[in-house]
Amino acid sequence: MLKKNLQRIFLMVIVFLSVKTALQNLQSDKSDQSEDMAAVVIWNERVSQLIAPIPFKRGLVGYISSEDIAGAAFDSADTEGEFVLTQYALAPLILVRGAEQEWNILNIDALSYQKWLQAHADNFELVQSGGGLYLVRRVRP
To answer: Which one, 36, 57, 60, 112, has least CB within 10 Å?
Structure first.
């Protein structure tokens, strides 16, 4: 009898803890999703403002990040994530790595931009910038 009562109590404790853990995970997931969504919305607004001068709605846009600049510090996870977010924000424009397109987005810090500009000043003009993003247009092939 005592053994059965202990088994029941033990089982009830396990069920209680399982339900409690499930509820905590559910609340945590909802919180993480809302934070992720806020980051996507902010990124989308930054990119949308930056690309307003692009005169076409469909086509290719180049993309340069800090990893493309020799000697620039970068985090590969951030670089890949920001590339994906930028692709999403540009749709239906298609984002391609490199600066071979007429219109290009540079996702780099100010020091890296100065390095990039020294090497490419004759071929590109700065159209718009803000928040570590630069929109440049190729003026010479």
So the answer is: 57
Q: What are phi and psi for residue 54, nearest 5 degrees?
A: -65, 125
Question: 71 — alpha (psi -120 to 50), left (phi > 0) or beta?
Answer: left
Tokens of 60: 């290719």
> Which residue is listed with tokens 């945590």?
28
| Six token digits for residue 42 | 């902010």
Please name every residue paired with 126 in a beta bridge, in sequence order, or none if there are none: 136
Contact predicate 103/48, CB 8 Å:
no
CA angle 47, 132, 38 (to 5 degrees): 50
